[in-house]
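seq:
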Amino acid sequence: MLSKNIGIDLGTTSVQFFVQGRGVVVDQPSVAAYETKTGELVATGHEALAMYGKTPRKYRVVKPMGGGVVEDFDVIRHILRIHLDKLCKNMLFKPNIVVCVPSSVTLLEQRTILDLVTASGAAKVCLIEEPLAAAIGAGLSFDRPGGCMVVDIGGGTTDIAVLTMGQVSLSRSVKTAGNALDAAIMRWCRRTKRLVIGPSTAERVKKLIGYALPLKRTIQLPVGGKDRVSGQPKNIVLSSDDIYEAMRDRLDHMSESIREVLLTTPPELAGDIVKNGILLTGGGAMLRGLDEMLRHDLKTPVRLAKNPRFCVAMGTGRALKNIDALIRNGHQYRTREELLGYTEE
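struct:
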């Protein structure tokens, strides 16, 4: 095998790799575990996530992504290098890579991510906005004049974008996403039930009994944690109404953020959005009842994409098939030498 182009969705909660001709071949949590004294990497992905919050002092578990941006570049470099080494071990040449980033990242953050990926083994790297990749992955056709709106709800950010002619016309990125909903559940349990739970438990509760709308018949779930006052182990029963109450403010903020983008959308594009509807992508969009809630709040058609968790990664794959179109729309492939301005010895 000479070389294969690769697409990377570098998300807050997970990292996904798309290999041209093979599809999504890596879907792992963005987590790494290290030995505290030596700094030696001992685990990544699912294995490291299983250690989160349960390790002795000998180990430290790191989540290097926060709010859609890289907070610990050394950890991300290790994660990328491990996966790229596995994927590229039989390749004669280094791969070209498309990396997705939130639409709100700064130029400095863009350059740092480019440097990070080229240092991890890429020949050339191109950055693409997550909402654009999500739309491509969902199969939307917007290379002609005409607007569509994509709301990509990840772990750290919700990216709201209006797209037309293959480009982002306007966008907004907010921190209200999957992790913010988990944190809201944790705060509500601590304040209302005097129960302290961790993020993994909050996420599990959200997935099992979380709804964006009140249910006619509530669902209950036993949950364990520790008492906020005594610190003793404690078990309680939470209902779907409890979780809706915990998430309601954050969900309202998400809805209002989308409304604000709609208000600033040019009238012609807004008319297209009313006709075509709003597309929800990302793992956070899988919260039950979310599309119905937004449809009611925004008075606009809203639909959930097929396989929303993989829309961004699939979008990078489809973009890789048409690199010339990316370049025509202003995206640039850069080598490490072009980034640094000199050739490394």
